[in-house]
Amino acid sequence: MALVVVTLGALTRLLDAGLGCPDWPGCYGQLIPPQLHPETTTAIDSHKAWMEMTHRYIAGLLGLLILVLTFCVEKSNSVATHTRWLCRGVLMLVIAQALFGMWTVTMQLLPQIVTLHLLGGMALLSLLLLLFLQLSKTTPVTVAPQGRKFSIIVLLFLITQITLGGWTSSHYAGLACPDFPTCHGKWLPALDLQQAFNLSDIQTTNYEGGILSSDARVTIHVVHRLFALLVVFSIMLLAVRLWGYTLLRKQLLVILSLTLIQVSLGISNVLLLLPLSLALLHNTGAALLLLSLIHLIFRLQPKPQSLWQQPHHNLEMDRVI
């Protein structure tokens, strides 16, 4: 259900429905979107209003379910202490997400808030997955310490790339480069890093449609592309390093497949001028790739240093199932 909420949030953003209801938590002061503006009696965009309110209501339902889950975990005597704290963390994140949702509306789609709202959704998905894995039986795989450390580095790369994707979307820079692999026919167009990533630039204006210059949007888009290369390379390298562990191969194949799909969707979004379905799949694909990588890392159990320094033949036996 959390994935549905994240997907609905992306759909709301892609349909420019984030301000379909200009107030919060209601819509024009009502629980159900009205047909006419209550003050001017002019027609409102009911489709955008309903999209926004649907997202809010389903997110609210998810929050209630997590509240019930937290209550059940607290009442249980068989749940480990660290699992209880993880569940509490999930509940706190739900509250933070509600605040980000409110600020997204009241601050008129401020990119910093929109991006944080996206990251909050991804974090919520990740914590729920970790909670599920802790409550279920997962077969650990003993690997070299360097293997697990590198997988965490890859995860940080992926989180950075998702952040850049959110920054690209919140600044409406998805089509800042209308061609591929070049951008406006150039391998490296004019860039404006200072304006593109100025986090302190907060204006009291409506950010719908974006307000940055063309060069700044091109910069955001190009950086998102270039960092994608680093993410793809690091994931491939991780797969090579862990391929010797038989129990991990299926997961590695899933991660590699999702990576290939994400790259294909990213390129297709540019060449096909950002069709709604592909843009939505690109967002969902990022979430699935993140969850797959977190699941992989959860299974990795670093071999104690003393064992890792034993003769090579002992290590090889750990790789064979």
From TrEMBL:
<keyword id="KW-1133">Transmembrane helix</keyword>
<feature type="transmembrane region" description="Helical">
    <location>
        <begin position="55"/>
        <end position="73"/>
    </location>
</feature>
<keyword id="KW-0560">Oxidoreductase</keyword>
<keyword id="KW-0408">Iron</keyword>
<dbReference type="GO" id="GO:0046872">
    <property type="term" value="F:metal ion binding"/>
</dbReference>
<feature type="transmembrane region" description="Helical">
    <location>
        <begin position="252"/>
        <end position="274"/>
    </location>
</feature>
<dbReference type="GO" id="GO:0006784">
    <property type="term" value="P:heme A biosynthetic process"/>
</dbReference>
<feature type="transmembrane region" description="Helical">
    <location>
        <begin position="152"/>
        <end position="170"/>
    </location>
</feature>
<keyword id="KW-0472">Membrane</keyword>
<dbReference type="InterPro" id="IPR003780">
    <property type="entry name" value="COX15/CtaA_fam"/>
</dbReference>
<keyword id="KW-0812">Transmembrane</keyword>
<dbReference type="GO" id="GO:0016020">
    <property type="term" value="C:membrane"/>
</dbReference>
<protein>
    <submittedName>
        <fullName>Cytochrome oxidase assembly protein</fullName>
    </submittedName>
</protein>
<feature type="transmembrane region" description="Helical">
    <location>
        <begin position="280"/>
        <end position="298"/>
    </location>
</feature>
<dbReference type="Pfam" id="PF02628">
    <property type="entry name" value="COX15-CtaA"/>
</dbReference>
<dbReference type="InterPro" id="IPR050450">
    <property type="entry name" value="COX15/CtaA_HemeA_synthase"/>
</dbReference>
<keyword id="KW-1015">Disulfide bond</keyword>
<keyword id="KW-0479">Metal-binding</keyword>
<keyword id="KW-1003">Cell membrane</keyword>
<feature type="transmembrane region" description="Helical">
    <location>
        <begin position="109"/>
        <end position="132"/>
    </location>
</feature>
<keyword id="KW-0350">Heme biosynthesis</keyword>
<dbReference type="GO" id="GO:0016491">
    <property type="term" value="F:oxidoreductase activity"/>
</dbReference>
<feature type="transmembrane region" description="Helical">
    <location>
        <begin position="85"/>
        <end position="103"/>
    </location>
</feature>
<comment type="pathway">
    <text>Porphyrin-containing compound metabolism.</text>
</comment>
<feature type="transmembrane region" description="Helical">
    <location>
        <begin position="222"/>
        <end position="240"/>
    </location>
</feature>
